[in-house]
Design goal:
The protein has five helices and eight strands. Strand 1, helix 3 and strand 2 form a beta-alpha-beta unit. The longest helix is centred in the last third of the chain and has 43 residues. The chain folds into two domains: 81 residues; 166 residues, no CATH class. A five-stranded mixed β-barrel has the order 2-4-5-8-6. Helix content is 39%, strand content 22%. The two termini are 30 Å apart. It is of the alpha/beta class. Helix 2 runs antiparallel to helix 5.
């Protein structure tokens, strides 16, 4: 067996190197996909554990990002709708059943002036679909014109998408702001107010305000990572099998040729 593999390698250097390259790429990519899946599972477990901790109150702060990150929080105050930011190119968190295409839309980021405090809290109120015919036609959303209480989960930011340009906020004169990404530091400089160092992603509270809040779990896509890992490992295995079978056929062909020449002599 050792002599056979030695012959397969020695007589087919280029094919062997090519096969090793395919096998290495397949194994490394497969292991990376498994790592991605495990990372998501660990993050989801950590998030669930932090959500089991006592609920914080934004009005009783101040809270740092480290103290509040990924924990449940309640907040009482009044929205400032004229300062809202619509984050574009955001897919619907959980597509409808049977749908294969991710519907594009907006996250509505809206500041809330906390009751009894000189502090603003940015809230990701939810997702709404985009008008495909006119990008600047925003979906109808209802905003309470009074002090309300909300509950959500604390995050450092609402998620980022690829953006061309400087990323500075666009100046709108009397028009809603449509941005690709959201930066708390920039918003604080633009408005000149004191604000919490995190955003609150509002949970579903059964209010029909035109926004969806069926947020995707952090483990979303884990099965896809496992499927990709299987494909990469299958590629590595196929590369090895192809190298082995093609080599065996070549050796068999050479042996047949040698026997034929021997009979001729």
């Amino acid at each position: 067996m050792n002599s056979l593999f030695t012959a397969l390698i020695a007589k087919r250097i280029v094919a062997t190197v090519s096969a090793l390259l395919v096998i290495a790429i397949g194994c490394v990519a497969g292991i990376w996909q498994l790592g991605r899946a495990e990372t998501k599972i660990a993050l989801a477990a950590n998030l669930q554990a932090r959500q089991q901790m006592p609920i914080l109150s934004a009005n009783q702060g101040p809270w740092t990002l480290g103290e509040a990150s990924e924990r449940r929080m309640i907040a009482r105050g009044q929205y400032i709708p004229e300062a809202a930011v619509w984050l574009d190119n955001r897919p619907r968190p959980i597509p409808p059943a049977g749908s294969t295409n991710a519907q594009s839309g907006f996250y509505l980021m809206m500041p809330m002036k906390l009751e009894g405090k000189d502090l603003v809290l940015w809230v990701n109120r939810g997702w709404a679909p985009r008008n495909n015919e006119n990008r600047e036609t925003l979906p109808p959303v209802q905003t309470p014109n009074k002090v309300i209480s909300i509950e959500g989960i604390v995050f450092a930011h609402p998620g980022k998408v690829y953006e061309l340009g400087s990323g500075k906020p666009t100046a709108y004169e009397g028009k809603p702001r449509i941005e690709q990404n959201f930066d708390l530091t920039i918003e604080e400089m633009v408005h000149g107010w004191s604000q919490a160092p995190f955003i609150l992603r509002e949970l579903e509270v059964g209010v029909d305000d035109g926004l969806l809040r069926d947020w995707a779990p952090l483990t979303n896509g884990v099965d896809r990572h496992y499927a990709y890992a299987f494909q990469w490992f299958a590629l590595a295995f196929a590369g090895f099998i192809f190298w082995l079978l093609s080599g065996l056929r070549e050796i068999k062909r050479q042996n047949s040729g040698n026997r034929y020449r021997g009979d001729q002599e």
